[in-house]
């Protein structure tokens, strides 16, 4: 961080081209050197392993479909994940998308601006001859890289756990078609990419709140509160006109990746919705950041 | 531009773009303009539907029901609200019913029908016996002259209803004729009309809506939300059970043995106020708790007590139909008001 703050002072002409790559590199090093980042990533990596082992050990003889099905995305998907190496990674992603992953995206967004303000390190950025737009770009790339890392780590350990427990023959869809390894990996990659996009939207909202406050806890609390309020609103049938506006409205559609042929409509709509949230949140973050005094 | 002004501009523009995007998604897929189509008579329309072979297609079917039915545990089929349908234009078809996060897939190719339930990882193979296929072929022969078959069908339907082509509609972005069946005023039924939207080009029925008296929204609507008439990949109509699946093979008998004896009832009445009257199988009313189906408890919960000439029992009323189960184990069901059911029960 210190090198970023001091380095641009020398070549003043380099303002426009203060090597974006170098700024991003510095930011990423900053993110991935934080112990809490690594702890969170480690915990996320362990979740699919725990779920996989637990489902194998429990291995209930009775059909899991006996309970009231269709109540949520992750939980009922996990019911089928026991003997299926394809459902395990996607199912755990769907489960974690409920609360854990948004929480870690919010943490990353909170650290990016509010956290640095609290430590006084954002001052260096604001005083340095780096455009505020570039600052926001660097910060949002940082959040995006973190969210992608989080989902990829989860998906990878999920796939590995599933393959170790059930073997390569167990890569089959909810429609009963057994997939080849590359085709299955493509599906997992689509799921991970889609989840990362949703998390980027959460992270963008966190960045926007982050730009307006100097307390990282405020960011965490408001994003977490928002996720919970949105889930509750999503459960109320009387408010169904509001549902398309809620970011997590399409989060339960992640299971569609596992269907064959894959119905693309709900997933595309979810991606578009995330894009709208990103546009709103980043423009608000920029507005605040560009008027912030050093 | 000073930074403050630019900040406000960016904030407003970005928010506007994002909000507009969300609003577009929130907008209901409107029915759109009724398309202009050459007029067609009801008879021509019905005969062309009978003549048409279903082409290869892929589509999504949505089931909207506003039946006013109490949500009953243990009836998972009613939970399905969306299905993906594929047809190869010949003998292969595939239906995928989405139920929450699981799926029920039915694949048919020729005389083999596979069904697969992802929640239980179980597959069932059903081989349709030759007689059934012959029977179907025979039925098809009867329809071999669609014009006269349509005439006969219409004659029968017209005894109790008015059949007309009432304008056009746009279903799944395709122009369609609306065939409307309206019960004659003498019919005692809860239904106001049944509308069937028929694709103007391929003459495939695209949507069916059941409307009841006193409402503008259909009580039951089954229709394509999107449909694509194109050749489908052949592997869609093949099925191999996945690893670890429980596979059972079934051969249907001449008459279905799974149906308990004594459940058979009969139809009484004609046209729209047809009522199905019969006897509830003893196994169902016996000790509650077997297989978790507590019939008596369900009746207590959803039914209302009724009594009259027929005896006494429970009535369950929905927007499209009524059912009565009497205490001595008889039942009557129909798309009719309660009065018609009690009359039918009293006659027997």
Automatic annotation (TrEMBL), chain A:
Keywords: Membrane, Transmembrane, Transmembrane helix
Domain of life: Bacteria
CC per GO annotation: plasma membrane
GO MF term list: ABC-type transporter activity
Transmembrane segments: 38-58, 78-101, 141-165, 185-210, 217-236, 270-289
Transmembrane among keywords: yes
PANTHER family: INTEGRAL MEMBRANE PROTEIN-RELATED, MEMBRANE PROTEIN
Full protein name: ABC transporter permease
Organism: Prauserella flavalba
TrEMBL record, chain B:
Annotated signal sequence range: 1-31
Keywords: Signal
Identification of the protein by name: MucB/RseB N-terminal domain-containing protein
